[in-house]
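Run: sequence + dinuclear copper ion -> complex structure.
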Amino acid sequence: MNVPSQSVLHPAGPDAVIIGQFAWVMFGAGALIFITVMALLALGVRGRPRPVRPMRWIAGAGIAFPAVVLSALLAWSTWRSAQLTPQSSQQSLAISVTAKMWWWEVRYRDKASGREVITANEIHIPVGRAVYLGLTSSDVIHSLWVPALNGKRDMVPGRVTGLTVHADTPGVYRGQCAEYCGEQHARMALHVVAETEQEFDAWLARQLEPAAPPRDAFLARGRQAFIDQRCGACHTIRGVTGVTGVAGVAGVAGVAGLVGEPRLGPDLTHVGSRLHIAAGTLRTHRGTLAGWIADPQAIKPGARMPAAADLDGESLRALAAYLEHLK
Ligand code: CUA
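>> structure
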């Protein structure tokens, strides 16, 4: 899908449908009242002057009308809100999302093996069922908002908030950080990939595997560059570098154990399989990866990623190709 949808007006799940109705009904009621008031105003300005009884107007248009309209809207929205999916961590699939300046860490726990998958900036969910997202932040307050799937929910350091997402239609839905969180708030996007149960299971199985070994000398050179540049100080490639084993310990408690060890950069074990890099900033391919590694500050000023200044051109190309092949 080329244009990921990010609109309240194009809901893709039951909760978003209800929120979309709120938007339309509130807009419709507001528009109707606005037009009525403007029409009365026009009549008052252009019509023949007629004596009016001010008390009748104040009682009718000033008190009774707003009271009836606002009470009706309140009653309707309260009734409709009660039909939203409850925010329960007891959903059959629970995913942990930690917001960081300025990206998203996403963790899955495989029920069968108990192993954990750590990825970034992309949440895969199966269609047709409610999925619980346990949300927290490791630095400042962020907010997760995928308008096509549900409303927004703040992500607060030291607390776990919950949001249930439920997609009925397979597709890619764009989301955005909805709480100002610093210099790169605008480039803190994420994508929810909703796919069939089989596609989701296959995706999770692939993500559980360690990084693909380089299949030729060029890619091996890229992997060596990753090690030599000490990219592993912030990034993990499972089976190559990074804090192996620690992830399992931190994630034992699942959603409750969200506030795990500090992790500075995204896990790159399967970075090539993700749609975007730098939290929705660029599509993933070797060209954008090379540009990002060479000068991340030109693309996303203030991001925690330093430039790989002493990397020669050939090694940079090899490193970008190696990361791209980590599907
Ligand atoms: Cu994170 Cu705005």
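>> summary
The pocket of dinuclear copper ion is lined by residues 99, 102, 142, 177, 179-181, 185, 188 (CB under 6 Å). The first helix runs from residue 14 to 46.
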